[in-house]
């Protein structure tokens, strides 16, 4: 009996992840709850535990592949961990290789794995074997190519390749049989004859331009259609192979236009362009950065985003902090910062303006009767937003402790999905990096995000006198579909009032 390993739920706003690394390989013994694979999302890295003890029977997605929630990652053979052959025997019986002379129970299918819900088909690339070849378990049989990545398909067991059903260039779907392997050791002689005429083994057309791997078939076709040479397309596949997605990106960036430009213009610009290109460095975006980029752009496209600004005199908070910081740290064991004041001020304002704490779901508005405040934290891997839950029910000291704990977990890469999901509002502090003013992008599906900035001394008119005050610009980006301008401005004014008169926080005013 086999147990499936699937992508777990990653939170309300996270629908896909990238395979960061496998800790086990097919054939390895594993125990229940032992980490077996690591997934990386745009927010956090998650280790997926083994759902049962046994032997890792198969892996259907490779490192670097993008998968969606619920997608099949692999299978575990429980108990003694039978090899993959018995598990696939029933399939092989339905489509035995004709005349192979091997018993049906010894022939197993090599099938097209699932590449995630958003990928419904792939193209057969280069076959590494031909009919009659002897293979070992985990030997690469063939490469499958999608518009996102190239995936090597390993042999599920040692044996002889008795039949190849799909040729290079064929389009296949998850579950399609690619080949059959005889694990009894008797299939080689019978398969030797048809192997000579098997059309499935030829390598893709040349014209690889000297690269380590020739372009994938679909990529080569698109390159020819768009008059592109291999030197004009950066390959992102294994060993630098050019994939269909690489050609699409090159065409979108205007490479084809450059290739077909008039000769005089090329002669005039060629030396300069070549010289500049030698000083450039092309680095492919990580899957994490690609996901962050897509989600931020989706937020801009989906919401009617608008930003309103104000400024706050930070003098009162700074004086209060200076007066009590030593006593505060001695009693609570944590330093008194600005985030506790800002989080508390935001919670007060959210209670008065509930639309900023709501979200849109289809044609409904969901009002949140609680304040789960996300606090953006910069890490080496990118920006993450851990959530302070029920911040409205916490004291400033409790908020500071929780923010400190979440910040340490973020920097150490130990944040879990429970730390990252469920936020109703976000605070982003660009001031720690020196930002004077910015317009933050919404953290969908939330309807509001507050941007803090650098505290800077500026001349201000106070009671008819020009005085120097420590001022900070505040920015509230909000979804205008649900939050009116009056509500947004009022919200920001309430935050300003609470910070300029901290006693209001104590008295709940």
From TrEMBL:
GO terms for molecular function: dihydrolipoyllysine-residue succinyltransferase activity. PROSITE patterns: BIOTINYL_LIPOYL, LIPOYL, PSBD. Residues 2-77, 107-182 form the Lipoyl-binding domain. It catalyses: N(6)-[(R)-dihydrolipoyl]-L-lysyl-[protein] + succinyl-CoA = N(6)-[(R)-S(8)-succinyldihydrolipoyl]-L-lysyl-[protein] + CoA. Pathway: Amino-acid degradation; L-lysine degradation via saccharopine pathway; glutaryl-CoA from L-lysine: step 6/6. Pfam families: 2-oxoacid_dh, Biotin_lipoyl, E3_binding. GO terms for cellular component: cytosol; oxoglutarate dehydrogenase complex. One of its GO terms (biological process) is tricarboxylic acid cycle. Its cofactor is (R)-lipoate. It is an enzyme of class 2 (transferase). Keywords: Acyltransferase, Lipoyl, Transferase, Tricarboxylic acid cycle. Residues 214-251 form the Peripheral subunit-binding (PSBD) domain. Belongs to the 2-oxoacid dehydrogenase family. Forms a 24-polypeptide structural core with octahedral symmetry. Part of the 2-oxoglutarate dehydrogenase (OGDH) complex composed of E1 (2-oxoglutarate dehydrogenase), E2 (dihydrolipoamide succinyltransferase) and E3 (dihydrolipoamide dehydrogenase); the complex contains multiple copies of the three enzymatic components (E1, E2 and E3). NCBIfam families: PRK05704.1 (NF004309), sucB (TIGR01347). E2 component of the 2-oxoglutarate dehydrogenase (OGDH) complex which catalyzes the second step in the conversion of 2-oxoglutarate to succinyl-CoA and CO(2). This is Dihydrolipoyllysine-residue succinyltransferase component of 2-oxoglutarate dehydrogenase complex.
